[in-house]
Amino acid sequence: MKIVYVYPKFTALAGTERVLIDKMNYLAEHEDVEVVALTYEQGNRPFVYSLSPKVLHIDLDVSFDSLKKYNQIIRVLKVKQFNILLRRKFNQLMNSLSPDIVISTTFHANIASIIANCPTSFAKILESHIDKRYIHCNDPENRQHLFNYLWSVYNMLKLSHNARKYDVLVSLHQSDANDWAGYLKTRVITNIIHLNTSGRYSSLESKRVIFAGRFAKQKGIPDLFEIWRMVAAHHADWCLELYGNGNVSELPYTEEEREKLNIHVYPANPNIFDKYLDSSLFVLTSIYEPFGLVMLEAMSCGLPVIAFDCPHGPAQIITDGVDGFLIKDRNHSFFAEKLCALIESDELRKKMGHAAVLSSQRYAAPQIMAEWMNLFKELMNKKTI
């Protein structure tokens, strides 16, 4: 069985990149599968996470990133040229490789369209890593600028049209699967999680609370800072550390104000597990979260998690009152209250931390990848009928 994963580039310290690389590595190392990682904007840059030597990497060298130097009108014209080039290179490669299955994501409408209309015959899978209601023109951030909004409307229309040509869409939860069900068959398979395998767990004794994720509107960081202001009033000796990518200048409060509140901001860290192990609690204040793998990463290190009960990931992961707390209605005061309760009780913190480790094992690679292998075999059987 030959499987091709298509993604523009693996250069960002982000969740989708981590998940896709982990899945490719697992298939190449544990299954009788030939895996190809196909990019088109990677160039000579290294993969952000280690790729198994058993995975064949091919880059088509069509860098849409290079178009950022042009104004918007010229960029639109050149995007069309680049898409034609990408389509030609992709079709030639598929004809040469003759893959059994090709997998892409709903993030990138252009490559999803190219895969959907490729003349070579293979099974096609779309992966939904962000709910349909939050991608392209449904993303609130794309509504802030007219050009971005119009472009995202076009991409959503293109994606919706071409989704019908895929064999199946795999979503992270049933609600998103239901949203796509009018276009094509759907299947729910949760993410494979890169769990802590060090054999070490947090002592839960450091006075450190950690957040990991993009510094984007979706993550609700202004809410987190307001919550921490309440916590810091009672526990000034504790600190909040944030690790992520994004524009730090757009974060709430000045650097001086953050310092007074014992809030420290750092770039995304490739060794984030070391930071989890040196922390005592994990917090997430997302407005929406299709899954939230950082929660499970932290839980596998023994950290209780506190998160808003936003659509839809946290409720899938956290058992309220057992391995963490789910906070409804974006209630800042209640979030701060639960955070203080865990800060003030070593016994509760350690009890929940132990439960968090056990809970995280539900998402270990063998269980999740067995579901993927069943899907692959179904598609192969369908192909031979």
Provide a descriptive summary of the structure in words.
With 385 residues, the protein is α/β, with parallel strands linked by helices. The chain has two domains: 2-193 and 364-384, Rossmann fold, CATH 3.40.50.2000; 208-363, Glycogen Phosphorylase B (Rossmann fold). The protein is 42% helix and 16% strand. The protein contains 13 helices and 13 strands. It has helices spanning 15-30, 72-97, 109-116, 146-163, 174-180, 221-232, 255-260, 272-277, 293-300, 313-317, 332-344, 346-360, 365-384; strands spanning 2-6, 34-39, 56-59, 101-105, 123-127, 168-171, 186-188, 208-212, 239-244, 263-267, 281-284, 305-308, 324-327. Strands 3-2-1-4-5-6-7 form a seven-stranded parallel β-sheet, with helices on both faces. Strands 10-9-8-11-12-13 form a six-stranded parallel β-sheet, with helices on both faces. Helix 9 packs across helix 12 (346-360). The longest helix is centred in the first third of the chain and has 26 residues, at 72-97. The protein is globular and about 65 Å long. The relative contact order is 0.11. The model has no long low-confidence stretch (mean pLDDT 93).
